[in-house]
Amino acid sequence: MNYHVLTLFPEMVEQGLHTSIIGRAIEQQLLSLSCVNIRDYAGNKHMKVDDYPYGGGAGMVMQAEPVYASYQAVKEKIGYPPRVVYLTPQGGVFNQKMAQELAQEKDLVFLCGHYEGIDERVLEEIVTDYVSIGDYVLTGGELPAMVMIDTISRMVPGVLSNEESAMTESFSDNLLEYPQYSRPAVWRGKEVPEVLLSGHHANIEKWRHEQSLKRTRERRPDLLENGVE
Fold first, then answer.
1. Other Cβ atoms within 10 Å of 180 Cβ, number
2. What is the pTM of this model?
3. Of residues 128, 129, 125, the one with CA closest to residue 67
4. CB 153 within 8 A of CB 108
5. CB 81 within 8 Å of CB 108
6. Are 80 and 93 in contact (CB under 8 A)?
7. How many CA atoms lie within 13 A of 3 on its CB side?
8. Helix (H, G, I), strand (E, B), or coil: what is residue 136?
9. How far is CA 114 from the centre of its chain?
10. What is the DSSP code string of 115-126?
11. Segment 74-83, tens digit of pLDDT
């Protein structure tokens, strides 16, 4: 999987993703991350990429040409028009199913907006997916891009040391993950459920499924609308 992030703050994305599991996967060349600074395509000595919005209003708008030129640089580099994800509160809400779909791509471009947004004309020209990570507003698209990259990367073979963990975590079957416990067996008077100490794998799996259902009903009943039981 090759990630290309079009951004005004490449150092923010690079520093955030070159650590932990994702950083290790990049070192192992299971993933690649290229951050393209949109300012490099500003076309003026002050590297200005924003201007006042037509029609008036507060704030500034990112101009079309620098965004388009940075996209074209990626397109020419990889040799075909890639899928482009624009991070915006106006998009569909990101979820595990979307992550699994996007993980099938060879290249993914993430477009990170700032200010009051990006000139609509370039969005119409290059964007294939409008995606939000939640119903709130952030200062830019970099954090949402990193969230998506982290989630998608977990679906890429070899990124996780134990591939089974990617399939049994929360949301993989529309259920939240069951409670987890580790040593000691008793901590501050709280005991690990006896079934987990039994060594009886069928009973353990049954208990875990029951706990996932219980937790989902309590915390995210909306996930059960698909009839998972």
1. 7
2. 0.86
3. 125
4. no
5. no
6. no
7. 34
8. coil
9. 18
10. TT-B-HHHHHHH
11. 999 999 999 9
